[in-house]
Design brief:
alpha+beta
Amino acid sequence: MILLRAFKKEAQLEFWVESSPGKPYVLLKTYSICATSGRLGPKRRFGDEQVPEGFYELDWFNPQSNFYLSLHVSYPNESDRILGSRTNPGGDIFLHGNCVTIGCLPITDGGIKEVYWLAVLARTAGQTHLPIEIFPARLTARELDQLSSERRAEPQVTEFWENLKQGFDYFEKYHRPPTVRISRGGKYVFTRE
């Protein structure tokens, strides 16, 4: 089993693997996110140039990408559809090669070659869901306080980050991904697997 975790402020993508069934995940490798667009905060509409934040899956493989190889991120998820634009929340978000982006996560051609191959192996071995968690930053208490003070005028953003922190903290504590569901109000709800 694999899990990817992206941190926008640090421009890093972590690739985690389950050491053995039911055991904690271990960090296999960290990749640099080599280009960014938008600012810290969730994607809410088409054309905002934001990289999404939240809990997603890599839901299809694109071997003929304009950016070497790419893996599609399942944005918009149900939370994004509730909290974002009702008419057009946007889409076409990918983890890909090259080093250009408008809302995607580029990790160089060499990086995506490795991640793509490992994702193919995971899918071939029977992993049907390939989770990717995208955070504004490493959501430690200190970092969240700093982000919140920078965005004091946008309480809906800091409230969203506080919700993401619950999922961040779960993984930090157990080194296993939580089960994620979405409430009617668009909040993430985290439970044990």
